[in-house]
Design a protein that fits this description.
Number of helices: 5
Low-confidence stretches: 1-6, 138-145
Mean pLDDT: 78
Radius of gyration: 15 Å
Order of helices and strands: HEHEHHEHE
Number of strands: 4
Structural class: alpha+beta
Shape: globular
Protein backbone atom coordinates (compact mmCIF):
# COMPACT_ATOMS: atom_id res chain seq x y z
CA UNK A 1 0.00 0.00 0.00
CA UNK A 2 2.77 2.48 0.64
CA UNK A 3 5.01 4.21 -1.82
CA UNK A 4 8.41 2.75 -2.36
CA UNK A 5 11.69 4.48 -1.60
CA UNK A 6 11.49 7.97 -0.17
CA UNK A 7 7.83 8.04 0.78
CA UNK A 8 5.90 10.44 -1.40
CA UNK A 9 8.82 11.92 -3.36
CA UNK A 10 10.37 11.40 -6.77
CA UNK A 11 12.98 8.65 -6.81
CA UNK A 12 16.62 9.54 -7.46
CA UNK A 13 17.67 9.64 -11.11
CA UNK A 14 19.63 6.42 -10.73
CA UNK A 15 16.42 4.65 -9.64
CA UNK A 16 14.61 5.53 -12.88
CA UNK A 17 16.05 2.64 -14.86
CA UNK A 18 15.47 -0.89 -13.60
CA UNK A 19 19.17 -1.73 -14.07
CA UNK A 20 20.28 1.37 -12.11
CA UNK A 21 23.11 2.09 -14.49
CA UNK A 22 25.70 4.48 -13.07
CA UNK A 23 26.40 7.42 -15.39
CA UNK A 24 23.52 6.63 -17.76
CA UNK A 25 22.16 9.64 -19.65
CA UNK A 26 18.56 10.31 -20.67
CA UNK A 27 17.99 10.11 -24.41
CA UNK A 28 15.26 12.54 -25.36
CA UNK A 29 12.71 10.88 -27.64
CA UNK A 30 9.46 12.10 -29.18
CA UNK A 31 7.59 10.04 -26.57
CA UNK A 32 9.48 11.67 -23.69
CA UNK A 33 8.84 15.14 -25.14
CA UNK A 34 5.12 14.34 -25.56
CA UNK A 35 4.84 13.14 -21.94
CA UNK A 36 6.70 16.25 -20.73
CA UNK A 37 4.38 18.54 -22.69
CA UNK A 38 1.24 16.71 -21.45
CA UNK A 39 2.43 17.02 -17.85
CA UNK A 40 3.37 20.69 -18.34
CA UNK A 41 -0.15 21.38 -19.68
CA UNK A 42 -1.76 19.49 -16.76
CA UNK A 43 0.27 21.46 -14.23
CA UNK A 44 -0.65 24.78 -15.85
CA UNK A 45 -4.35 23.81 -16.04
CA UNK A 46 -4.34 22.14 -12.59
CA UNK A 47 -5.78 19.09 -14.31
CA UNK A 48 -5.15 15.35 -14.61
CA UNK A 49 -3.34 13.37 -17.25
CA UNK A 50 -3.00 9.59 -17.52
CA UNK A 51 0.06 8.19 -19.25
CA UNK A 52 -0.68 4.60 -20.23
CA UNK A 53 0.72 1.84 -22.38
CA UNK A 54 2.29 -1.62 -22.29
CA UNK A 55 4.56 -2.62 -19.43
CA UNK A 56 8.21 -1.74 -19.84
CA UNK A 57 7.74 1.06 -22.38
CA UNK A 58 9.09 3.84 -20.14
CA UNK A 59 5.96 5.49 -18.73
CA UNK A 60 7.32 5.84 -15.19
CA UNK A 61 10.73 6.86 -16.50
CA UNK A 62 9.22 9.61 -18.70
CA UNK A 63 7.01 10.90 -15.89
CA UNK A 64 9.86 10.96 -13.35
CA UNK A 65 12.28 12.65 -15.77
CA UNK A 66 9.65 15.23 -16.75
CA UNK A 67 8.61 16.05 -13.19
CA UNK A 68 12.24 16.35 -12.08
CA UNK A 69 12.51 19.19 -14.60
CA UNK A 70 9.03 20.74 -14.24
CA UNK A 71 7.98 20.46 -10.59
CA UNK A 72 10.33 18.49 -8.33
CA UNK A 73 9.40 20.34 -5.13
CA UNK A 74 5.66 20.04 -5.79
CA UNK A 75 5.61 16.33 -6.64
CA UNK A 76 4.17 13.72 -4.27
CA UNK A 77 3.99 10.04 -5.27
CA UNK A 78 1.37 7.55 -4.22
CA UNK A 79 1.54 3.92 -5.25
CA UNK A 80 -0.71 0.93 -4.69
CA UNK A 81 -0.15 -2.76 -5.38
CA UNK A 82 -3.74 -3.93 -4.89
CA UNK A 83 -7.21 -2.43 -5.41
CA UNK A 84 -7.20 0.22 -2.69
CA UNK A 85 -10.23 1.12 -0.63
CA UNK A 86 -11.22 4.72 0.11
CA UNK A 87 -9.53 4.29 3.50
CA UNK A 88 -6.31 3.18 1.76
CA UNK A 89 -6.44 6.23 -0.54
CA UNK A 90 -6.89 8.58 2.42
CA UNK A 91 -4.01 7.09 4.39
CA UNK A 92 -1.65 6.97 1.42
CA UNK A 93 -2.37 10.62 0.58
CA UNK A 94 -1.90 11.64 4.22
CA UNK A 95 1.54 10.03 4.36
CA UNK A 96 2.66 10.96 0.82
CA UNK A 97 1.81 14.60 1.48
CA UNK A 98 3.89 14.50 4.67
CA UNK A 99 1.05 15.78 6.84
CA UNK A 100 1.97 16.10 10.52
CA UNK A 101 0.61 13.99 13.36
CA UNK A 102 -1.63 10.97 13.16
CA UNK A 103 -4.26 10.49 10.47
CA UNK A 104 -7.72 11.63 11.62
CA UNK A 105 -9.95 8.87 12.99
CA UNK A 106 -13.21 9.95 11.31
CA UNK A 107 -13.75 10.10 7.52
CA UNK A 108 -15.30 13.59 7.52
CA UNK A 109 -12.40 15.02 9.50
CA UNK A 110 -9.95 13.08 7.30
CA UNK A 111 -11.48 14.44 4.09
CA UNK A 112 -11.42 18.00 5.46
CA UNK A 113 -7.72 17.62 6.32
CA UNK A 114 -6.90 16.28 2.86
CA UNK A 115 -8.92 18.98 1.06
CA UNK A 116 -7.08 21.67 3.00
CA UNK A 117 -3.69 20.10 2.17
CA UNK A 118 -4.60 19.62 -1.48
CA UNK A 119 -5.60 23.29 -1.73
CA UNK A 120 -1.88 24.04 -1.93
CA UNK A 121 -0.28 23.71 -5.35
CA UNK A 122 0.90 20.08 -5.60
CA UNK A 123 1.44 17.44 -8.24
CA UNK A 124 0.25 13.94 -7.33
CA UNK A 125 1.68 10.97 -9.19
CA UNK A 126 0.10 7.55 -8.95
CA UNK A 127 2.26 4.90 -10.55
CA UNK A 128 0.60 1.57 -11.32
CA UNK A 129 -2.71 3.43 -11.69
CA UNK A 130 -4.40 0.33 -13.09
CA UNK A 131 -4.96 -0.75 -9.45
CA UNK A 132 -7.26 2.22 -8.84
CA UNK A 133 -10.98 1.95 -9.44
CA UNK A 134 -12.36 3.04 -12.79
CA UNK A 135 -14.32 5.79 -11.04
CA UNK A 136 -11.16 7.27 -9.52
CA UNK A 137 -9.36 7.34 -12.85
CA UNK A 138 -12.41 8.52 -14.79
CA UNK A 139 -12.09 5.77 -17.41
CA UNK A 140 -14.66 3.27 -18.59
CA UNK A 141 -12.34 0.48 -19.65
CA UNK A 142 -9.79 1.03 -16.93
CA UNK A 143 -6.06 1.28 -17.53
CA UNK A 144 -4.08 -1.70 -18.71
CA UNK A 145 -0.99 -0.11 -17.23
CA UNK A 146 -0.43 3.48 -16.49
CA UNK A 147 0.68 6.45 -14.49
CA UNK A 148 -1.89 9.04 -13.45
CA UNK A 149 -0.54 12.54 -12.82
CA UNK A 150 -3.03 14.77 -10.99
CA UNK A 151 -2.80 18.44 -10.17
CA UNK A 152 -5.71 19.17 -7.77
CA UNK A 153 -7.79 22.27 -8.50
CA UNK A 154 -8.21 24.83 -5.75
Amino acid sequence: MSATGRHGRLPGEREDHYMRLAGAQVVVTRALLAVREDIRAAIEARAMVCIYGPAGHGKSFAVNASLRELAPALTHRIQFRARPSTRDLRHELFHALGLPGRPPAHPIEFDRTLRRALGEHRVLVCDEAQWLSKLWCGTRGGLAGGVAVCVPAR
